[in-house]
Specification:
The complex is a heterotetramer, with 2 copies of chain A (144 residues) and 2 copies of chain B (398 residues). Chain A is of the alpha+beta class. Helix content of chain A is 38%, strand content 19%. The radius of gyration of chain B is 22 Å and the shape is globular. The chains are: A alpha+beta (144), B alpha/beta (398). Bound molecules: pyridoxal-5'-phosphate (2 copies).
Chain lengths: 144, 398, 398, 144
């Protein structure tokens, strides 16, 4: 059901853990739906120099967190903001349709962490461009 | 990479066909392949084999052979029993009573009937998963035409008080169906003394083939056909008979019920060893389902702060096959309706692990799980934002 | 008593599982037995095997894999297609068109729907068993929601003009179902160019296992489920998948359709030799069904003055397996509805013999039948009160 | 499906044929339903000294004709009249439920032949006692 890449990031997740005194934190998901992701970032000169995560969730959720944190590390905030759920899923060599929402969560977690940073800096938060533009696959929705 | 020895602990999902069952089935694919409706020699062989199986199944249930109808499995049996009785008795009433923890084959059928103008009461269960006979009696109305309560639950293993529930149905002259798919081989069944009018079973849950089941229909029960067509199964279930599957079902049910007591003692001992080990070594774990009134092979434990699928993936990596009440491949993100019905908070429901033991499991298997599982749980908790080593806040006091 | 070599000539009733098919199925009973809905290794194997089969079947029909749904056989597929479309499209209309010569799985389903408020037109056929496309078009009303015409008839072997009929259905935006249970392996099928929206097939008719079939449902067709429950088959057909059966179906359909042309030439040559021999040696015999537009293996002949079952018994005594349109074991005393629909007088319908040839039959088999059959017919005519040697009155000039 | 006895009487039917100048003939059944039996009897001193049959029908019909003619041979007309369909079926070691009607036909054929004889003798025909007392099994009915 999962690609080798997903299994690799599930079994050897990159960037697990918390950052002490992070510059930004984003928590997304809902225990009712079985996924919670917490993303921590360190930002230096507008660049994400470190990213870590803690995730309660399925294999795809853990792999998506791992991949998303990998993808944003070293990127400018603007670049990181553009990392879409699709990019996460593609980097994982695909996710089953019903697991696409995990990549969406990862994107949202990154966005939340960035906006948390911007808020702390007294900057206006960036807006989600089009929350319905995600590539959800045939994913079901958890209404909680 | 070295392949780890597989430890199969998902017997509630399905079981392998036993060699003795396979031996019985084999000739019916190639040699005795005749269509039982035909007149010539090889066809008469098929016909005879089917009737012998009907008698085998009837004996196990305390029924008459002509009360046994072969189907394509548990889901078809459930659909047939419920829709068949509902539509055939519409003039008498439109109310059906079932429980909140039924298998989807029952629940989704009931939901379909709601769209067709029927009213369905979904009885709640207590925290151990038991249906309360008094609640059942209270739910009965003069429009009630069918009560369907499962014999034993597939997720938490709780065994319902079927005889008592059946007696209430009989008293009110309401048809009583039980989904006994998980019960066969684990509890002695007698449809007469237990007042069962219809009973579903499925061969692949007791070491028979997939795609073959049966529905017991007490003589006199008014029921519509589900699959119309040829005159097979006494004109009640059309379709060329799956002779190999049917004979396999017969041998499998005979083997599975030859020594129910011995099976219970042996399997429950293994299960209890596993449970004890888990509860002793893993904190924030709780048993789901009834502590005593449960299927001997069923163990269902919730581990707080972590999610079931990720547990299964790690276990699979170690060659251990289990299941979860978390959403997983069901296509829904909600945790199992059974877990919610027994009152588990959703996040705890997501962290449930079902291990169901079978005939081939050994103490070594159990000990292997007890070696692997604590590490898996610890690893996942380590990366869970809900788990805090100090103080361990976030625990739901369940 | 010396046991006579069996000559199986009832391939339209069912076929033996081919060794190559059995080889594919075998591991799924015991080794790769995992429930495809599960997450671990052996379950993923099952899942993969099922998806591969879906692609195999799709390719044969010119469909997409996700348009193929596995069922328990032809009867379930027919029931699902017809009831599923009828109930799901009730708001659009309540009229269904089918033919008078459909299999009971279609006819009895339609009769059931008539009780549920639907109106059904049963199109007549011509003496060769053909449905007239013009008749179909005339029967269409603005309430017609489904047209179901079989691809090839199981008794007389007549092949219907499916593409033409499908085109009429498409033109009027009416769903078109075809029961192709007898057609697979005998005619090339392409659901797209033939405008087929739903198509039923059954594995045991083409050397696959009994109890396993499929329904093709074109993407976009509005159809209710027949068997509700678990999320299998893209949530459209509940029940733990019969993996062995499904993989067997896949291999069987691939083998059966690998060389349809060659198969037709070879089998039809045998069949024609048999027919010629019969018509040359037995008076008062007539071929039923279309002389050319017929399944290559199908031979259906009526012998006047005698009854089919007694013919079959004598043939069985000689090791020859055939079938009849006489009442026989069907539980009715009326002759086959197909025989009556093509205009046979009942007494001639009772005297019909169906011999359906298959892959393993040889010229020796044919010659053996040609040796035995004339004697059987003569013996039975000898004791028939309808047969008079001089003048042979009582013959129906058909 | 058939007992050995049925198969024996089907494969080696006793008394097949016609009697030239019979004392009584009874024809029953209907080609629409797939069975026609014609029973011929010779009567001497109130005793059936010979019986023959011709039958168009299934295995059970042929076996029932054979058995019925066997059973009535040597009997007085009164005794032969009492040979019930049940007796024919039992003598055949049973018939499948859907074939019980064949034994009914045989009883009726005998009755018709006897009454044909009585009519020819100027005697009043005997009445069927209770046409619905037959043991039909679960037999379906052909409405022709
Ligand atoms: C034309 C046709 N349709 C449907 C069926 C039913 O298929 P099954 O017996 O697999 O249910 C058959 C054969 O029995 C058939 O010949
Ligand atoms: C309690 C219960 N009922 C019904 C079913 C459905 O049986 P099947 O998968 O054979 O259709 C199952 C198992 O899947 C079950 O556990």
């Amino acid at each position: 059901m999962y690609s080798d890449k997903v299994m690799d990031h599930f079994k050897n997740p990159r960037n697990v853990g918390e950052i002490e005194n992070p510059d930004g934190v984003g928590e997304v998901g809902n225990p009712v739906c079985g996924d919670i992701m917490k993303i921590f970032i360190t930002v230096k000169d507008n660049i994400i120099t470190d990213a870590k995560f803690k995730t309660f969730g399925c294999g795809a959720a853990i792999a998506s967190s791992s991949m998303a944190t990998e993808l944003v590390k070293g990127k400018t905030l603007e670049e990181a903001w553009e990392v879409s759920n699709k990019a996460v899923a593609e980097a994982l060599e695909g996710l089953p349709p019903i697991k696409m929402h995990c990549s969406v969560l990862a994107e949202e977690g990154i966005h939340k962490a960035i906006n948390d940073y911007r808020k702390k800096q007294g900057l206006p938060e960036w807006e989600e461009k089009n929350p319905h533009s995600h590539d959800h696959g045939e994913e079901p929705v958890c209404e909680h | 990479m070295e392949k780890k020895h597989t430890i199969y602990l998902d017997h509630a999902a399905t079981t392998p066909v036993k060699p003795a069952v396979m031996d019985v089935m084999r000739p019916y694919f190639t040699e005795h392949f005749g269509n039982p409706s035909s007149i010539y020699g090889i066809a008469r062989e098929s016909k005879k084999a089917i009737e012998a199986t009907r008698a085998q199944v009837a004996k196990v249930l305390g029924a008459a052979p002509d009360e046994i109808y072969f189907t394509s499995g548990g889901s078809e049996s459930d659909n047939w029993a419920i829709k068949g009785v509902a539509f055939a008795n519409r003039k008498k009433g439109n109310h059906i009573i079932t429980s909140a923890i039924e298998h989807h084959a029952v629940l989704h059928t009931c939901q379909y009937l709601e769209k067709e103008g029927f009213t369905v009461t979904y009885l709640p269960v207590d925290p151990s998963g038991l249906v309360d006979p008094q609640e059942l009696e209270k739910a009965v109305t003069d429009k009630t035409i069918l009560i369907s309560i499962m014999y034993a639950n597939n997720e938490i293993g709780t065994i319902e008080p079927i005889a008592e529930l059946g007696a209430i149905a009989r008293k009110h002259k309401i048809y009583f169906h039980t989904d006994a798919v998980q019960a066969i081989g684990n509890v002695p069944i007698d449809v007469k003394s237990q007042n069962i009018d219809l009973l579903s079973l499925s061969a692949h849950k007791f070491y028979g083939p997939k795609g073959c089941g049966a529905l017991y229909i007490r003589k006199g029960v008014k029921i519509d056909n589900l699959i119309h067509g040829g005159g097979q199964e006494n004109r009640r279930r059309a379709g060329t008979e799956n002779i190999a599957g049917i004979t396999g079902l017969g041998t499998a049910i005979e083997l599975a019920t030859a020594d129910i007591k011995g099976h219970n003692v042996r399997i429950a001992a293994l299960r209890d060893r596993l449970l004890k080990g888990i509860l002793e070594t893993i904190p924030y774990a709780r048993l789901n389902g009834h502590p005593l009134k449960r299927l001997p092979g069923n163990l269902n434990v919730s581990f707080e702060f972590i999610e079931g699928e990720s547990m299964l993936l790690w276990l699979d990596d170690e060659g251990i096959c289990g299941s979860t009440g978390s959403a997983c491949t069901s296509g829904s993100l909600e945790p199992s309706h059974v877990m919610l019905a027994i009152g588990l908070p959703p996040e705890v429901a997501h962290g449930s692990l079902r291990l169901t033991l079978g005939d081939a499991n050994t103490e070594q298997d159990v000990d292997r799980v007890l070696d692997v599982l604590p590490k898996v749980v610890a690893k996942l908790r380590e990366m869970s934002p809900l788990y805090h080593k100090t103080g361990k806040e976030g625990g739901c006091n369940v």
